[in-house]
Known about the structure:
Helix content of chain B: 10-25%
Number of strands of chain B: 10
CATH class of chain A: Alpha Beta
Distance between the termini of chain A: 14 Å
CATH architecture of chain A: 3-Layer(aba) Sandwich
Number of strands of chain A: 10
Order of helices and strands of chain B: HEEEEHEHEEEEE
CATH superfamily of chain A: Dihydrofolate Reductase, subunit A
Strand content of chain B: 15-25%
Distance between the termini of chain B: 56 Å
Helix content of chain A: 10-25%
Number of helices of chain A: 3
Largest sheet of chain A: 7 strands, mixed
Radius of gyration of chain B: 24 Å
Order of helices and strands of chain A: EEEHEHEHEEEEE
Largest interface: A-B, 19 and 17 residues
Number of helices of chain B: 3
Strand order of the largest sheet of chain B: 1-8-7-6-3-2
Structural class of chain A: alpha/beta
Structural class of chain B: alpha+beta
CATH topology of chain A: Dihydrofolate Reductase, subunit A
Shape of chain B: globular
Oligomer: heterodimer
Strand order of the largest sheet of chain A: 5-4-6-1-7-10-9
CATH class of the largest domain in chain B: Alpha Beta
Strand content of chain A: 25-35%
Amino acid sequence: MNYIFCIEKNKGLTFFGKRQSEDSILREWILNYVNGAKLWVSRYTATQFKDTATIMIDDDYAHKAEEDDFCWVEDKPYDISLASQVIVCNWNRRYPADKFFKEDLKALGFKKIKKEEIKGSSHDKITIEIYQRR
Amino acid sequence: MKNLIKRFLALALVACTCVALSSCAFLDGLLNPPNDDDGYSRPSSEIAFEVRNENVPVFSQEELTAEPYEYYSDLDSLGRCGVVKGTLGVETMPALDEKRGSISSVKPSGWVQAKYDTSIVQGGYLWNRSHLIGWQLSAENANKRNLITGTRYFNVEGMLPFENMVADHIREKGCHVAYKVTPDFKGENLVCHGVTMEAYCIECQGNLQFNVYCFNIQPGIEINYATGESRLAS
């Protein structure tokens, strides 16, 4: 399974159960990267999409996603031990947070295989890092 | 014998008085922690902010308008800022190529600048001229009704992340956000203990909203909120 996270500078993931930010160009990037594979999201994450035909909406995606599927994690739990690839999108901004992405991917056996920077629709620079389990 | 009883009663009275006085002192110590004895307060924790009212902001119907506006209270008789509020949108934000103006001419109430080691205060200087409505949201520069004496920590760890969240939300969605910042001055203190920040997205109907209190503290520094003086924590 492949996980996608969006985090702020201090690795914050959400604040009071809600996302900190969103960006339409990043959404496009994610859909392009997934390239037709299943992209699972929670009902809350689905509210980011105008066209939901291309995504799988289920709050229990962590148990339903299969090996090659992608899960965009915002408000629901995840199990990093199931991940073969992790995509971390950094907003390069400070936002308030009370839930953090604390995984030490290197210690968990992941290797960074790609780093890309994009200009978002409302963010000057979004840094996307892709980690693959060794 | 009578004299002996009188002496005993007198001694008992003195003893009772002493116990009562020491109890009062003890009670006073509980109610007024020792760190306030000389007017200085130690930061009790390193929490930059806390959520209030389950994170639900309190706005009147009148304040929940999508029509952009900004309101800044007049300074009070001590030269202190009051509540500031507005409906913020791209209309109130700086233009893409707009540069920040100087704000160094403004001396907010309690402005007693102090420099510390950069290992304690990022950048060295304790006090920032803290915008109540951030520049990125209001394009307000040297508006004395919008600038308070705030620590570096308060500015960067407390207020800024919330301002960023609102600014990026407006940029992304083109929405309007009802916004209110209320400084919390105790008594006649010249420096506030913190500010309440409230926000509510009008068009998203609260998809973005918060109600938080940001503490005007600096870890490692004791602050005299009455005057703005400060010192290293003992």
